Amino acid sequence: MRRREQTARTGPGRLPSSQSQSQVPSAAREAAELLFDLLMEQKRVMQGVAKEFGLTLQQLAALRNLVPGEGIPMSALAEALSCDAANVTAVVDKLEARGLVKRSASADRRVRLLETTEPGADLRATMIARLREPTPWITVLSREDQRLLRDLLRKGLAGVGTQRESVVRSR
Description:
Layout: H1 3-10, H2 27-52, H3 57-65, E1 72-73, H4 74-81, H5 85-97, E2 101-105, E3 112-116, H6 118-131, H7 136-139, H8 143-170
Antiparallel strand pairs: 1-3, 2-3
Helix pairs in contact: 3-5, 4-5
């Protein structure tokens, strides 16, 4: 394998393959590797959007998970962000200091709910609109390839739902 091709397969953000150099990866493995690279690129896009709005990636994720008009417990936000309560408290403190979220009481006095403020809801809507803009790697594709990609992604997402249902049933 030429060095440039090898670097493309094992370069920054790529995990070295456990296969020998002479083996050709299966289409599924190749697709998984390419998807991983695209997800890492998407993370960079998200970091750029967060920076545009003066947020960290974790603050962006927190605000994205708060639905305007609906309060959620801090524990639910911690679970959504895959972090502990202490980390969520620090993230929420910073968002609250900017006037983007507020804590409110719930029916259970032990639980504090998080809600977006009006400025927080506005920023969230603008931020989500920016995150949903097609990225350069999508816009360089032909219209036909964009439709094909859309259809394949829909099929993949439908498979995720089916897989989740079977895991729940097997418990």
